[in-house]
Amino acid sequence: MTVAPSRTAPADRPSRLRPGSRVAVVAPSGPVPADRLEAGLGVLREWGLEPVVAPHVLDVHPELGYLAGTDADRAADLQAAWCDPAVDAVICARGGYGAHRMVDLVDWAAVRAAGPKAFVGYSDITVLHEAFALRAGFATLHGPMVATEAFLKDAPTREHLRATLFEPETVLTLGLDTAAALVPGRARGSCTGAASACSPPTPVPRTPGTGPGADCSSSRTPVRSPTGSTASSPGCCAPAPWRGCPGWSAAPGRSADRTRRSARCWPTGSARWGYP
Question: Where is the LD-carboxypeptidase N-terminal domain (predicted)?
Answer without folding.
Answer: 23-143
